[in-house]
Amino acid sequence: MQLQLRLVALYLFVCVFCAGVLQAQVAPTQSADWRARLTEVLPLLGHRNWIAVVDSAYPLQTSAGIETVETNSDQLSVVTTVLDQISKARHVRPVIFTDAELALVPESDAAGVTAYREALRTLLGARNAQSLPHEEIIAKLDEAGKTFHILVLKTNLTIPYTSVFIRLDCGYWSAEQEKRLRERMAKK
Predict the structure, then answer these.
(1) DSSP character for 122?
(2) From CA 134, how far away is CA 136, in angstroms rounded?
(3) Is residue 140 pLDDT above 90, yes or no?
(4) CB neighbourhood size of 163 (10 A)
(5) How far is CA 70 from CA 27, 128, 165, in A?
(6) For residues 68, 69, 74 and 80, what is the CA-based torsion angle, rounded to 10 degrees?
(7) Any bridge partners for residue 52, and if so which?
(8) Where does residue 125 rank: exposed (0-12), middle (13-18), buried (19+ CB within 10 A)?
(9) pLDDT given for residue 32 in this prediction
(10) What residue ranges define each of the domains in the chain, with the CATH number in brackets?
(11) What is the distance between the alpha carbons of residues 49 and 145, in angstroms, rounded to a whole number?
């Protein structure tokens, strides 16, 4: 009888533990201060990690490596903060992607989209943002999330196709340096 009780207790413990692990992988983080989470995680991130600043209808992705934090903040201010923090980090640099659909969303269907596009263009300035179809970017995040950490910062913006996706790259090693290294390796 003692053995059976111990086995039942062990079984219940394992069930509760596994449920907690699964919930941690799927449930979004409710952060009172998303800035603190960004500050905490940025030093751990490197090339191939992503930070996405998304609108309020962006889907909760379930890949284990994707962490979603509700910011309850204005999207452009979140983008500004993220880019500012990345610019202070010596180990990473941003590669920015925006939704290709954004350029074609009419003001008549999404009030405020014209002002948003202009504000985003000003905010990004000389940074070279690439535009890709939304589904293609989500697929990239989903694939990367299988191996690498993705931080999704969900904002209160309610204009479609306004998400800004930032793939981190090495801040102290360029693509050109990598190419030269690979060429040298091929000659050996």
Answers:
(1) H
(2) 5
(3) yes
(4) 25
(5) 11, 27, 16
(6) -80
(7) 152, 165
(8) exposed
(9) 58
(10) 31-187 (3.40.1650.10)
(11) 8
